[in-house]
Amino acid sequence: MDASLLQAIVDPAILFFFFGLFAGFVRSNLSIPEQIAKFLSLYLLMSIGYKGGVSLSQTGLTAQMALALTAAMILAFVIPAYAFMLLRRRLNPFDAAAIAATYGSVSAVTFITAVAFLERQGVSFGGYMAVALVLMESPAIIMAVLLANVVRSRSVVAGGTADGNVSVGKVLHEAFTDGAHLLLLGSLLIGYITGLPGKAALDPFITSIQKGLLLFFLLEMGLLVARRSRDLKLDGPFLAVFAIAVPIANAVFATALAKAFGLGLGDAFLLTVLAASASYIVVPAVVRYAIPEANASLYFGMSLAVTFPFNILLGIPTYFLVLRQLWG
To answer: Which UniProt keywords apply (predicted)?
Structure first.
C-alpha cells in the first residue's frame, strides 16, 4: 500500500470506524444508545453548517460558489439518469429507480467525515459546499418518483393494476423538511448572520469537542455497518460490483467537472466525495413511501453495507491523494 494512503487511513476517526466494524462482526454487546447516536449526528451537522455559514459570511457570494453549486446540480441530475439506465437492464423498473435515487443522492455522514479529513489536512474549502450537500439530495428522489409513476401509468394502460401515483409535491415536502437538512441549512444561516463574533463565542462547543464526538459517531457507524452487513443478501455479483464501481465512476466524473470549472482543491474534493457517496438516510425514508414496490433491503443494504464503508476506509483518502496530484 502506498505510504501516503496508509498515513491517511491511519487516522483516529478511521481507526475507530475499523474498531466498530470489528466489534460488530465479533457480535460484541458494545453499543451506543440510539438517542446519543442521533444527537452525535445532529451535532456534527450543526457544527459543519455553522462553520460553513461563518466562512460564507467572510467570502460572500462569489463566482467560485456559483461554479461549485452549478457543478453539484449537474451531478445531481446526470448520475441518477445514467444509473437508472444501467440498472434497468438487470432489474425491474421499481428497484432500478430506487437504487438510482440512492446513488444519485448523497450521504451527509460521508460528507461530515470528508470535512473532518480536510480540516486535519489543513486544506481550506468554501462554506457553500454545505449548500451543495442539500442541493444534491433531492433531484435524484424526484426523478425516481417520476420514473415510478410512469411505470405505474403504463401498467394501468396495459390492463394491469397499480396503486395511485405518488404526489411529487408531497415527496418534495418530505425531502426538503427532513430534520437533518433543516438543521444544516438553519445552522448555515445562523453562522452567516453571526459571523466571526458568534464563532468566537461558540468555538469551544463547535470546534474543540468536535473531533472527540466524531470518534464516537464513527464508532457507532462501524457497529451499524457490521450489523447490516450480516443481513445483506445481493442477488448475484452485479449489484455488489455496482455498489463500488459506480461511486468510483461518479468520483471521476465529479473530478473532471471540478477541474473544468476551476474549483479549488478543497471544493473539488468535497464535490468528488458527494458524487461518490450514496444516501442511506433520507432517500430510503422517502423511497419506502414513494416506491413501496422496490426492495428496500437492496438499496439500503448496498449504500450502507458496501458503498459507505468503501468510501470511509479507502475512497476518501484515495480521492484526496489523486486530487492533490492533479491540482499540484
So the answer is: Membrane, Transmembrane, Transmembrane helix
